[in-house]
Amino acid sequence: MLVTPPMTMMDFFRKSEGVWFSQRTVHRFDSAGDESGESNLIIKVLDADDRRVLEICKEQGADPLLVSGGASFQWQGNLSEKAPDPNYEAILVDIPNPQNPRAGKFLRNKGYVEGIPVIGVYHFADDGVLTIETEYERNQGQERCWFVTDNFRVRVSTVKIVNGVNLMTYCSERRCVSPVMLEELIEQNHQRSSSIQ
User: Fold this and answer.
1) Number of structural domains the chain divides into
2) Could you tell me if residue 133 is inside a domain?
């Protein structure tokens, strides 16, 4: 079980780093087709001086000295054996609130709802639930995300347009275990079982 939830965006990025199997359920309030499905979400932490982070700061007129770092998010078909498509990647740059590290804003090179550069605001609640609010040109998005355990997390989001909620999404995400991580888990299990005997 998760002992301590991340309470800053960079801690959240670090805990999220890796490959996640994402199961998505989408409910649209218009006549558009079903977008539910399964995919892999690949998250990598970026340093504050990473070239992509600095480029986004320059493009959006942000002071890179205020940045704590960032992360890249890539989406890939669950059964795809190809390398991830760079068209399905977004870069987030964290600018924490200097008075409250549990809140801040982030720059994003490509929005989730509209494929344009956006600025979102975020805060972590006392229980570790992350809430992100993003204003687009024609839409407003809200996403909440939290870890149930170190290897399982949940995301829920809504997208609002002028006349109300247009889209609701629920995602459950399980960390994909690498061969190295699997060996570590097996070893931990052996140690645990030998200490019981």
Assistant:
1) 1
2) yes
